[in-house]
Amino acid sequence: MTGIPLSQPDITEQDIQAVVDTMRSGRLSIGPKQSRFEEMIAQRTNRSRGVAVNSGTSALHLILRALDIGPGDEVITTPFSFIASANCILYVGAKPVFVDIDPSSMNMDPAKVEAAITSKTKAILGVEVFGDPTHMDRLAQIAGAHEIPLIEDACEALGGMYKNRPVGSFGRAAVFGFYPNKQITTGEGGMIVTDDDKLADICVSLRNQGREDMSLHDPGCDSQTGSWLMHTRLGYNYRLSEINCALGISQMDRLDQILDTRRNVAEMYMRRLMGFKDLIMPNLHEIEQRSWFVFVVRLSDLYGQTERDRIVQGLRRHDIGAANYFPCIHLQPFYKQRFGYDRGMLPIAETVSQRTIALPFYNRMEETHVELAVHTLSVMLQREQLLISKEA
């Protein structure tokens, strides 16, 4: 695509040099860069431990394994999210129990979460959709009252604040993702943060093939003790390389600048779109400091999925990146086939999902890019209004 992309990573010469220096160091895995990156994310979220892994999906998987959640168990979660937040529950043999969302925040409705808790419920997996942390404190209260863990999926919310608490500090454990469209990137990568040392230690073991003793990291020395080849549990190769961690450290060094830049881009959009009567803007609260992941608008009830899809296609035809974030997970073919979900089961999530449009959003967006995206969206909306009036 030669026009305005939906997203774009922000890589500086400092980032490139950090990666090059690490490649020249001779230490490419399980080294000081990993430890430093873990410390930086843990400190930012007021947590005592960080565990770096190769994706946010892997991070969720390891937490569920560390909590010993498995077949016969249920985990309450949202149908309005990237599919990984539900898939990870299936990885451990448990069942995702979807509850409907609050249409304002697009996060799970806490009252519906509480109503869904049964004797089989072993965790609540809450997602801060598009970086919005609304209700995460309430989910933590519900989880505490029922003595079940809250897993905070903060993959889209790094650096945000809610009621004077950093995003990532609400659950028994929280996860972040560092895919190239996120606030910071490591190329591929994720992070677990927690204050639970036992859970963190299990995740450290699980990410590295189930090895228990990682105090010795030199395989050459470990040949004498056998610790490198001693595996005490079924584990995975979910490690994050020193190269990825070096990029993450460099990006974290300017996280506040990145957050400010993304906030400025969001404000440019808000100023230009507030007068559009057929659009619902992102929800903002005085009690939160949003970490902007994407800029998603919602069409009014005058429009449906057909009109939304035509608008997205029209934007793309004019080289403006756009996407339908997010299709409902319970209506994905695999979930419908396996669990028998059908339309109408989660009406609010479905209604929202049919009308959302993600517009181009990234650190280095210029004002002219925003203006062009808004102008093109305006033209597509006018076109749909004409089609609707003809059909009427």
Give a verbal description of the structure:
The protein is an alpha/beta fold and about 400 residues long. The protein folds into two domains: about 240 residues, Type I PLP-dependent aspartate aminotransferase-like (Major domain) (Aspartate Aminotransferase, domain 2, 3-Layer(aba) Sandwich), CATH 3.40.640; about 140 residues, Aspartate Aminotransferase, domain 1. The chain is about 40% helix and about 15% strand. It is built from 14 helices and 13 strands. The strands form three sheets. It has a seven-stranded mixed β-sheet with strand order 1-9-8-5-4-2-3, sandwiched between helices. A three-stranded antiparallel β-sheet has the order 7-6-11, with no helix packed on it. Strands 10-12-13 form a three-stranded antiparallel β-sheet, covered by helices on one side. Helix 1 packs antiparallel against helix 9 and helix 3 packs across helix 7. The longest helix has 25 residues. It is globular. The two termini are about 35 Å apart.
